[in-house]
Write a structure and sequence with these properties.
This protein is mainly beta. It is built from 1 helix and 5 strands; from the N terminus they run βββββα.
Length: about 70
């Protein structure tokens, strides 16, 4: 499924993961590695579903640190 990102903010942080890797999920959102820093996704929508906050999305789809988005 496609993931539509409606609200997010960039974060300056060091990490060693490949871009697209989920670094963390929390009540603040889904933290995803980027080439330089990370992106904190706070509002998203999976194809065919309603828009929701990222914490709800992570729980509903069992998203956890480690997997890469887009693969």
């Amino acid at each position: 499924k496609k993931l539509y990102i409606w609200w997010a903010r960039p974060l300056e942080m060091a990490h060693v993961e490949q871009p697209g890797t989920i670094l963390d999920t929390s009540s603040e959102g889904i933290l995803v590695a980027c080439g330089d820093g990370a992106l904190l996704i706070t509002q998203c929508q999976l194809e065919g579903d309603a828009e929701m906050n990222s914490f709800e999305c992570a729980g509903l789809y069992h998203l956890e640190p480690g997997p890469r988005l887009g693969t």
